[in-house]
Amino acid sequence: MMKLIKTEQDHREALEQIERLMTAGDSPDVLDQLELLAHLVEKYEEEQFPIDFPTPVEAIKFRMEQQGLNQSDLVKYIGSKSKVSEVLNNKRPLTLEMMRKLNRGLGISPEVLLQEPKAEFPDSYSSLEWNLFPLKELAKKSIIESKNCTDKAEECIRGLLQDAGLPPLLNSCHRQSSWNGKPADWYATFAWELIVRAKARKIDLPVKYVSGAFNEEHMARLAHLSIYDNGPLLAQEYLAKHGIVLVIESALKGTYLDGIAMFLDKGTPVVGLTLRLDRIDYFWFTLMHELAHIVKHLDSHNSCIVDFRDSCSAPSADIETEANQIARSVLIPENMWLGSEAKRYGSKAGAIALARKLEIHEAIVAGRIRKERNNYRILHQLVGNKKVRKLFLE
């Protein structure tokens, strides 16, 4: 009976057995034993006697000598004469992009370039143009390393992808839109989603989310926390106790984002908010909007939903309309709104009276008045300007 080769004695015995089988004929049984033994010996020898690879620089210099190349001939693989000089003098590491070009142009194997047996270059997300990510902004936020981030764009973003759990590409999301005629920056939007995912994956929740256990009734209870000065922080804690992660992450330039609703790879729901507008009414409505997506539109097998700054087009319009309706109703039930002085007169007194009756923050009522009347100059003093961001980001 054959066994794994774990010791030098096992190795010697296996080699002796191979010699005996080599003279035992060519029956199918003998050939099968030979093949299996050879595989076991090869595996043991690879582990115990690994081949020392030449360094990437040694391999490049060997190819240069072999093909009669000079440093100028390497510019097309490495990028510039100064970079070539730095690489050859071990003052600059090779990037994945350089390695791929050296592999294609000079035939240096990935094993040597990556210094790992049987290594291959990563091919996931191969269609991405890595330098289109907002690298400097990500480095400034300490999301990626600032040193050589432009030269090592692929490595930096692949690290972020790994931290985020290698999510599906963002073009599967329900919303892609623009603001004032300017299209949202796809790469910046994707980067923001990766940041939210990466941060959410580091958060340990006290309970595991149970599908269907969090509903509109819970959202309505959550709204009552808005009466407290630290209500947004209490909301984060409340959601955590239901297995939902709330991440606050400021938007990247060119994204026009309000928030995101999604599930992580392990089935944990996540709401990410940008706090693009630092107002109490904005926080609570956006939070409820994203929670509505989790309650009604998403599951652990569905794509994420990104909310841009303006209204969206079909087919996602129906989803957004429903999320807006749910957010409005859990914050201010329609039957309470229709007969209120807040709706009829749009006054400060009416907003405060309804808020006290519903046990919610007056900013929420004021925000609805401003929205329905399409007048954002009124009730400015009630909407809680500059009251939220400082709780999370300062």
Describe the structure.
Strands 3-5-4-6 form a four-stranded mixed β-sheet, sandwiched between helices. Mean pLDDT is 89; it is low at 311-315. It contains 19 helices and six strands. It has 394 residues and is of the alpha+beta class. Strand 4 and strand 5 form a beta hairpin. 32% of the residues are buried. Helix 1 (8-22) packs antiparallel against helix 2 (28-48) and helix 9 packs across helix 10 (186-201). The chain has helices spanning 8-22, 28-48, 56-67, 75-78, 81-88, 96-106, 110-114, 135-140, 153-164, 186-201, 216-223, 231-240, 280-296, 316-331, 334-338, 341-345, 348-358, 362-373, 389-392, and strands at 178-179, 182-183, 245-248, 257-263, 269-273, 305-308. The protein is elongated and about 100 Å long. Among the domains are: 56-114, lambda repressor-like DNA-binding domains (434 Repressor (Amino-terminal Domain), Orthogonal Bundle), CATH 1.10.260.40; 130-164, no CATH class; 170-179 and 203-331, no CATH class. The protein starts with 7 loop residues before the first helix and ends with a helix. The longest helix is centred in the N-terminal third of the chain and has 21 residues, at 28-48.
Keywords:
394 residues, alpha+beta, 434 Repressor (Amino-terminal Domain), 4-stranded mixed beta sheet, two-stranded antiparallel sheet, 19 helices, 50% helix
Q: How many beta-strand elements?
A: 6
Question: What is the count of DSSP helices, taking H or I runs of 4+ residues?
Answer: 19
Q: Give unreliable regions as ranges.
A: 311-315
Strand content: 5-15%
How does the helix and strand content classify structurally?
alpha+beta
